[in-house]
Specification:
Blueprint (H helix, E strand, L loop, with lengths): L18 H23 L5 H25 L7 E4 H11 L1 H6 L3 E6 L3 E4 L1 H18 L5 E8 L5 E6 L7 H4 L16 H12 L3 E6 L5 E7 L8 H12 L2
Parallel strand pairs: 2-4
Antiparallel strand pairs: 1-3, 4-5, 5-7, 6-7
Length: 241
């Protein structure tokens, strides 16, 4: 008679999954459907329609990258970011919006690179440049300039051709849920400012009525360790109501 012994293999305990992670995973599934349908529809479109569909797909891929970053808790999420490619990608994603508003995007980029979270910087720039497009009248332009400082850091300026703002409005920029633009939430500037602060940088707004508004972003080549006081102040500026 042959006997056999079966060893019991312990089943690993289930790893808890947060509600946010589950939601992000479901959102990724929805994006996969959107991308699949876009791939099927693209051959049926005109040349202009295919170009717009490619921008839609690029935006969907960007959302998926952001969700992947939320799901990946390992590492600090930074990489060497090529500044020229960064601005090319952001401006391309805003191309339809600018064309619909008859606003030109004039970019003068010196290039270079920095150590950062590319997804976060794209989000910050998208928010600030889209605000500049919204503030600029038709048939005028938004001017974007980047340069490498003497210390190797990055300085970026975004200038709209709008009517400008007074001090009473400038002082309240970035306060969540407080916007002076119809349909605005105030969150775009708050998020952009928080992202730049997390990278050890600064955001400054300058405006004169009748002469538009300029946003200046200064970022170190590599993230610097922020002091607790600076972290507290950045968080307060982003969350203050």
């Amino acid at each position: 008679m042959t006997s056999s012994i079966h060893a019991a293999v312990p089943v690993p305990a289930a790893t808890p999954v947060s509600a946010n992670a589950a939601r992000a995973h479901e959102q990724k599934n929805c994006l996969s459907i959107i991308l699949a349908v876009a791939s099927l529809v693209t051959p049926e479109l005109s040349d202009g329609g295919r170009e717009r569909m490619e921008r839609l797909r690029a935006a969907a891929h960007r959302i998926r990258d952001l969700l992947n970053a939320d799901l990946d808790e390992s590492g600090d999420g930074t990489s060497d970011v090529d500044v020229q490619r960064l601005f090319d990608a952001v401006c391309e994603s805003l191309r339809d919006r600018a064309e619909a508003a008859n606003v030109a995007l004039v970019v003068d980029c010196e290039g270079g690179s920095l150590r950062a979270s590319e997804a976060e910087l794209r989000e910050a720039l998208f928010n600030l440049i889209s605000n500049a497009v919204d503030a600029t009248p038709a048939h005028r332009a938004v001017f974007i300039h980047t340069e490498i400082t003497a210390t190797g850091d990055q300085e970026w300026r975004i200038r709209d051709s709008g009517v400008g703002m007074g001090r009473e409005i400038l002082d309240q920029l970035g306060v969540p849920h407080r916007s002076f633009r119809r349909g605005g939430s105030g969150l775009g500037v708050a998020l952009a400012r928080a992202i730049v602060h997390r990278h050890g940088g600064t955001v400054r707004f300058e405006s004169t009525r009748g002469h538009g508004t300029t946003v200046t972003i200064c970022l170190p080549q590599a993230p610097r360790q922020s002091s607790p006081a600076l972290e507290d102040r950045a968080a307060g500026e982003a969350l203050e109501e």
